[in-house]
Amino acid sequence: MRPRGILIRVRHNLRAVLRELLPLDERRANEVRIALAFAARAATSPQLAAVQRTVLGELRAGVAEGFAAAGAGSPARCAMLAGVAVAGADGLALHAVSAPDLLSPRRLAASLDALLDALLAVSPPAAPSGRRSRPAAGRPSRY
Q1: At how many degrees (to 10) do helices 105-121 and 75-98 cross?
Q2: CB 109 within 8 A of CB 22
Q3: pLDDT by residue (tens digit) across 52-91?
Q4: Are 79 and 58 spatial neighbours (Cβ–Cβ below 8 Å)?
Q5: How far apart are CA 49 and CA 44, in angstroms?
Q6: N or C: which terminus of the chain carries fewer CB neighbours within 10 A?
Q7: φ and ψ at residue 132, rounded to 5 degrees
Q8: Residues sharing a CB contact under 8 Å with residue 63, sequence separation 6 or more, in sequence order
Q9: Whether the Cβ atoms of residue 143 and residue 73 lie closer than 8 Å to each other
């Protein structure tokens, strides 16, 4: 992990990006409803699925850069953390617009903060010798 000052800036930037995915005001709530409708159509349309894949890929790549700046691990691990962060924000957004009384804007923001705190606080597991474990030849890495 990086020095605390860098982590604070990185967390602030990740939070700002991911908050844009949350329905914290009427404009963003409308955007989330449109995005959810698009995602539902993308599930049955190869053309829309290609657009969805591109948009999510770009978003996840940008968020992965943030995790890399925080020193969160290998590029593969940062990509995995980015996927978790984006999926978490998407899940919060889905719940907020499909069950509006479940999550207030304050609770949405606090939930996102808790997710980021958890993702940035946990280091990758180390091998017993203190070095990072490596996958066996021919086996994919967990991260």
Answers
A1: 160
A2: yes
A3: 999 999 999 999 999 999 999 999 999 999 999 999 999 9
A4: no
A5: 8
A6: N
A7: -65, 140
A8: 14, 17, 18, 82, 85, 86
A9: yes
Listed in sequence order, the residues at least 6 apart from 109 whose beta carbon sits closer than 8 Å to its beta carbon are 19, 22, 24
Measured over the CA atoms of residue 141, residue 118, residue 16 and residue 105, the dihedral's sign is: positive
8 confidence band (pLDDT: 50, 70, 90):
confident
Length of the chain in terms of residues written: 143
- Location of structure tokens 């949350």: 22
Whether the Cβ atoms of residue 51 and residue 119 lie closer than 8 Å to each other: no
Closest-CA residue to 31 (of 84, 82, 93) = 93
Contact 1, 7 (CB under 8 A): yes
Go through the domains of the chain in sequence order and give each one's CATH number.
Answer: 4-121 (1.10.357.10)
CA gap 3, 11 in Å, rounded: 12
Question: CA-CA distance, 123 to 130, in Å (whole number)?
Answer: 12
**Helix, strand or coil, per DSSP, at residue 67:** helix
pTM: 0.82
Kindly state the tokens that stand for 15.
């939070």
Instruction: Give me the residue label for tokens 């992965």.
Output: 64
